[in-house]
Amino acid sequence: MSVELVRAIEALILPPGGLLLLGLLGLLLSGRTLGKALVFIALLGTYLVSTPYVSSLLMAGLERYPALTISTARASGAQAILVLGAGRRLDAPEYGGDTLGSLHLERVRYAAWLARHTGLAVIPSGGAVSGRGTPEARLAKTVLEEEFGVKVAAVEDTSRTTRENARLAKEVLDRLRINRVLLVTHAWHMPRAMDVITEAGIDAVPAPTAFRHKDDEESRISDWLPAASGMLYSRYALHEYTGRLWYRITD
Predict the structure, then answer these.
(1) For 102-135, b where at least 16 C-beta lie within 10 A, e where not — what string?
(2) What is the C-alpha to C-alpha distance for residues 226 and 212, in angstroms, rounded to an integer?
(3) Is the pTM of this model over 0.85?
(4) What is the dihedral of CA 216, 221, 223, 229, to 10 degrees?
(5) Can you count the helices (H) and strands (E) in the chain?
(6) Which range, 4-8, 25-29, 201-205, is most confident?
(7) CB 95 within 8 A of CB 105
(8) Per-residue pLDDT at 1
(9) What are the C-alpha distances in Å from 243 to residues 46, 53, 223?
(10) What angle do CA 87, 89, 190 make, to 5 degrees?
(11) Which residues pair with 206 in a beta bridge?
(12) Domains in the chain and their CATH numbers?
């Protein structure tokens, strides 16, 4: 199944698409009790996934790997830092071409920080998912070298999914005779990433970044108010849950 088809199906299932379709179905059946129930469920679901409180709870189930300390990173025996791709901005006018998206930049920044504190080189992974433009890994290499002054050992620039990240990165690591890496990705993406990284035979030490859930944070009234960011991070979380399920089904 093509990446484009998978993303189209995902857009119709995950919020807000899935909830909009559910509400539309309810309106079509508005003369029946079932229709009214579907509209109510769609409205309630839209409200819940839009709240920071619910999005934080969804993230809590994913952010299982703790932050990596520098002392642990230095003692890990890792020989490089593998950072997974997370999207691009195509034809960014201010840069005169393609550049990294905000999520990808978060990962690259942390990889650079680890590199400076451990002396390890970085290996970016990620291709051109849409089939056009500069591959993510090439953009990451440019940012790492020119903006962060960090050494890049190699790039894996043809993968389009997390599973392909792992499989193709394994080939690069074998070629470089690298046996263990620090794996950089978002904290909420780490479980799925570790699933496929382990499946590919890569010995990786999780190095998660950009945590969303905080155990000791008190709930506030604003956490129960709808927010675009709440919907966005709920979608990211649900994408990870469905992605892990999909990988298990298609394994």
Answers:
(1) ebbbbbbbbbbbbbeebebbbbbbbbbbeeebbb
(2) 17
(3) yes
(4) -140
(5) 10, 6
(6) 201-205
(7) no
(8) 61
(9) 21, 22, 26
(10) 15
(11) 183
(12) 3-62+224-250 (no CATH), 70-209 (3.40.50.620)
